[in-house]
Amino acid sequence: MADSDNKVALITGASRGIGAAIAERLAKDGFTVVINYSGNAAPAEQLAARIEQAGGKALTAKADVSDADAVRRMFDAAEAAFGGVDVLVNNAGIMMLSSLADADDANFDRQISVNLKGTFNTLREAGKRLRDGGRIINFSTSVVGLKLETYGVYAATKAAVETMTAIMSKEMRGRRITVNAVAPGPTATDLFLTGKSDELVARMAKMNPLERLATPEDIAASVSFLAGPDGGWINGQVLRANGGIV
């Protein structure tokens, strides 16, 4: 992607946390950004306003990624507004921790529907509709490598995403579309911090040799690289953006 000007990036789950940092970074890089959210519109609208005030261009789009029809309408809206989509960032996800023995059906089904089916839904649309020369950037987790207790269902959904990433990179042959995944380690977001004691957070921050949590901006920088001109020869890979934890 030699020039991000007039390119459109759709980021799922982009109203807060890592997704919001990605939207701001890609807007700064010159992309028009589509900020997807599933529930509360206010944070997405506030983010879009910040991007516009900084000289960028942004559109908000409500869609539950687990709903295939909603995903289709989101792509329709992006195409109607901007003519097409060049970059898909599959950031939307949920994490519900428990041992496998204690995980109930609702826990399993919800994580499968958002993390795995949601990624599948957007990949299916992107596979048909992304403009040639585009980029697809999925989200995994470094827990796929760490294999921590209580992360079994969550990590399993992300391992499946990694497999789809590698296979889709081959299926895009002839269209100059790269497909990669970013796999963060512990990152200072509400998703990670909620429900964890200060002691546990401090212990996990020390697990990598750089001895800190990632910031959302650290992860956004990895996405920026894959979406930008310097990332064009990276394809079918998982970038473990985790400070060396695994």
Give your account of this protein's structure.
With 246 residues, this protein is α/β, with parallel strands linked by helices. The chain is built from nine helices and seven strands. The protein has a seven-stranded parallel β-sheet, sandwiched between helices. Strand 1, helix 1 (17-28) and strand 2 (32-37) form a beta-alpha-beta unit. Helix 1 (17-28) runs parallel beside helix 2 (41-53), helix 1 crosses helix 9 (216-227) and helix 3 (68-82) packs parallel to helix 4 (105-129). The longest helix is centred in the middle third of the chain and has 25 residues, at 105-129. The chain is globular, with a radius of gyration of 17 Å.
How is this fold's topology laid out?
Layout: E1 8-11, H1 17-28, E2 32-37, H2 41-53, E3 57-62, H3 68-82, E4 87-90, H4 105-129, E5 135-139, H5 143-146, H6 152-171, E6 178-182, H7 190-193, H8 198-205, H9 216-227, E7 238-239
Parallel strand pairs: 1-2, 1-4, 2-3, 4-5, 5-6, 6-7
Helix pairs in contact: 1-2, 1-9, 3-4, 4-6
H/E topology pattern:
EHEHEHEHEHHEHHHE
The CATH topology corresponds to Rossmann fold
> Termini distance?
30 Å
What is the class in the CATH system?
Alpha Beta
Query: Order of strands in the sheet with the most strands?
Result: 3-2-1-4-5-6-7
Which superfamily, in CATH terms, is the homologous superfamily?
NAD(P)-binding Rossmann-like Domain
Task: List low-confidence stretches.
Answer: none
What would the principal axes of the Cα set say about the shape?
A: globular
Q: How many H/I helices? A: 9
